[in-house]
Model the fold of this input.
Amino acid sequence: MKILCLLKPVPDVDQLRYDRARNVLVREQARLILNPEDATAAATALEIKRAVPDTYLETVSMAPRGARPHLEDLARRGVDQVTLISDLRYAGSDTWATSRVLARYLETRDYDCVFCGTHTLDGGTGQVPAQLAELLGLPVMVGITALAELDPRAGQAVVEVDGERALLRFAVALPAVLGFQYNPDRKLPYLRYADLNRDVSQQVVVLGNNALGLAETELGLRGSLTQVRRIEVDALETKTPLRLRADQEGLDTVCHWLEQKGFVQP
Amino acid sequence: MDKNTVLELVARILPASQINTTADDLYDAAADRYKKYAKARKVLDVPPPAAIVYPRTTEEVARLLAMCNTHGINVIPRSGKTATEGGLENWKENTLVVDARDLNRIIKIDEYNMQATVEAGVTLQALENELNQRGLTTGHSPQSKPVAKLGGLVATRSIGQFSTLYGGIEDMVVGLECVFPDGHVARIKNVPRRAGGPDIRHIAIGNEGTLCYITEVTVKLYRHFPANNVFLGYLIKDVASGIKVLREVMVNGYRPSVARVYSEEDARQHFSHFYKGHCVLLFMAEGNQGIVQATRAGIEAAVERFKDGLVEPVDSGLIAAWFARLNWSQKDIDDEFQGMIHNDSHAGFTTEVSADWETIPVLYENVMKRVRAEFPRAHDLTMLGGHSSHSYINGTNLYFVYNYAINCAPEDELRVYHHPIQRIIVEETLKLGGSMCHHHGIGKYRSEWTRDEHGSAYYLLEKLKQAFDPNGIMNFGTIFYQAEGARFLQ
Amino acid sequence: MKRVLVYIDEEAVEDSLALLEIGRRLYGEQGFCAYALAAGGGSGEAGRRFDYVFRARSGALPNFEAAALARCIAALHQAYGFDVIVFPATHWGRMVAPRAAARLRAGLVADVTAVGSEGGEIWMARPAFSGRLLATVVCRGGGPVMLSVRPRVFTQRAPALKSAEFIDIDVPDTPAPGVRLIERREKPAVRDIRESAVLVAGGGGIARDFPLLERLAQALHGLVAASRQAVDLGSAPRAIQVGQSGKIVSPRLYVAIGISGASPHLAGIRNAEYVIAVNPDRQAPIGSLADIVVEGDGRAFVEGLLERLEAPRTQSHGGRG
Ligand SMILES: Cc1cc2nc3c(=O)[nH]c(=O)nc-3n(C[C@H](O)[C@H](O)[C@H](O)COP(=O)(O)OP(=O)(O)OC[C@H]3O[C@@H](n4cnc5c(N)ncnc54)[C@H](O)[C@@H]3O)c2cc1C
Done:
């Protein structure tokens, strides 16, 4: 069985800074972490690989080259191939442009199933799994809490999904894009000391647009269908809270605020 | 010898009620906070001791030590269990942990002569509670005050948060009683000062359980004026600017009880609610009104003199509120432990060093650069910074603080993360002539560098060990490097 | 006249209908024609609020049939040329929308919390980086403007009653249905606090009034959580302790009552999007993460809030969306 797992290194939001003068988010100093939901997906795949050793697992990440040390560790944790798609021309890609790059790469691969997280910590749009599925013509299911069955021979996966109102069980035809929900108890296996410095360069594949060959117009900002106009970061700095007293006026304000934010129905 | 023989020998000295062989307790006694994560995850690689014993008198301590000395049984003295550097870690199969739990009497609070005498197993908090009621204090306030006990505090040469005014424990101990491996009990009398030969208190103070067992301590007392406390805080541009202000305050003769500079990253974990991405400089002045006012003026003048490095002042209420919550109780320690079981994370590690004024800013930069450039897991670091928290006329300390996402097996954590960073800090410090251990003691993991720390003066230390513990039964592996223990040192 | 299509998620019909408000904000009450796609259900309700309601001729097409739904939307767009297509940012809405956008080669903005137009261009604002920043985004290219909208952020003031024209559509040919529902279980009552979008957390300051917090949590459709102090005092089980030593949570709303916010606790809630802190001490560190700090007694606050939330709601409360 061959599983491809999408994995995005994201900046640790706690370490983001905002440069007011330049009106940009400074990500450089922020430590990268593996997007937690993607890590859940990869951990699930590695569990499968442990149970069914002839499983082939490849992770696919579109990220800056600086992500390489994080990704190399995946090979040390048991991933067979770690693919890093990196190209300066991809900078500024929105979910559509990203999905296109990923789809182009996936078209060159042979797989039974695509795993990924449902959302990312940074953008948090949750759009890539479904856009990718559409581009590849595959079924998609997201919000998966458990994988009950994955059987390429029968051509189906059985997954459990935490829908908004109910817990649901679906059969999904393979190949498919399966988006997992974060599960703190399903962790990537530990790196072992003996493996820490193991040379995994053979297992790491780095490629850019020269290999994928998308047209210039499809790349980065130009290839995106949405564009960020402005970023407000007041929340990023220490919040300046609204200060109220626990009196009638304060309570009214809180009620109004709860309505505004959609926590209670007016 | 096997463990049963050890237990038989102990049973001849103590009743069963003073001997503990519960498996969980022995596991707990095998290591201290140094291997906290491996311990929480139940993957410790060091052996449990044969037993934990609780002597009730100096006499019992003397008989236990003499027995161990005769039979070559390793002894680990233990008090509050807050050791951070492996001082309580066990590297021997046949080990007796001699715990001061029942040496817990406050013997005398002498208000007229301003000194208090307590047994080794009294927590500093218990003593302070008694003293505060009488308007007094020892002036000692390590973060571990609620848990650490006088025996351990003296044995590690600990220091408190108010040290810039009151000094370290070595400035507070008037006299003490200790027991040597051959069973000899030495009482060092309590006098204001004397020129009776070398100051032998210092053989016991800081011995980390490698020379003698401390049973009783007498410390100085001070009047306590908490109502007069003044807090001052500033956001500053960088660590070096803060160090300049600290020096200015000190060399002008002021003694704030607290004088600290936090790097930006360290400030973030302590002061996320007001640091605004800057370094933090803070002070506390205490004592009688006149002194407090003068100290405050002195600090303000120093800040003014170096105002180029200043960003803005901080509301002193915020500093006071932070300070009030700083100490760690047993509950906090237990909590961190639980956290390590659930969350693959802990509160981080520290390495505390000291050097003169000139050296400190250079050292700080060198360490930061080297860790970022050389540490192979730098990408896992979640924080790397530090603070200076204890100043002297000729220099100050640096408390390097670091934490990381633990991406390895619990049993590998130290050698993957802490050791390589600690090695860089120690090497850089020794290179510039500083001390690699400002206040936690050497413990076991820095014993590799004890010789380098002392250079030609190591001769004195070595002779002390040979003289007082010729059979090497006292806290094997602590302070004095042991080739046999090297396998634990990786 | 502008054309706005709203996708109706049959499991969140009210929330979907309310998205008409987006059209109203952008084009004014009379400025647009309102279309609803109610392929999986909810067409009756939609019929009273929209001008046109599309239904599936062959019977309900449920919300998890994302591929087929995307084709329907694309086909409808071919026929009607919508200016804006809106989805509720529900679990299912957010699975269907990207597929549809990909088919239409249209820009899609997720989880929008504010919209407007400026110089003829529609902008949408959405939180990102766990709510730490707000990004204003525009769509490019020729396609319709597509967005999924966070439920209940926009509410409609006294919606006009309409009587829609129902249009039955054929579901375009889809390759074999990829997703089949095998089982459906209503959600069990006991949930993990890590999974709840709303947490009402109590600390030492309210340790004796946890039953009251339970009521507030219910009113806000959330769960009760606790600080270590409350757990130590025996007011709450360890399973609901938040913080470094308890659980790290990331709810949308965290209401901290009587919690001062020692740093291990704060470490557990850094990813909460909104925090309301109720505490008698205005310097309490919890304030540093809070959007609203209520200075005062926790119990009085909860009682006052419950009075307001549990009272039968009247129209006069609404309409401030
Ligand atoms: C949260 C926390 C905060 C801390 N803050 C500070 C701080 O601010 N300043 C500071 O200096 N340290 C600090 N420490 C370190 C630690 O608290 C000190 O080293 C303390 O002095 C140890 O005292 P203890 O009673 O816990 O000793 P233990 O941990 O029991 O023992 C420490 C060492 O002393 C030896 N020892 C113990 N009792 C005796 C005895 N009776 N006779 C001979 N040897 C003995 C032991 O063998 C061991 O080597 C902190 C530790 C923690 C966990």
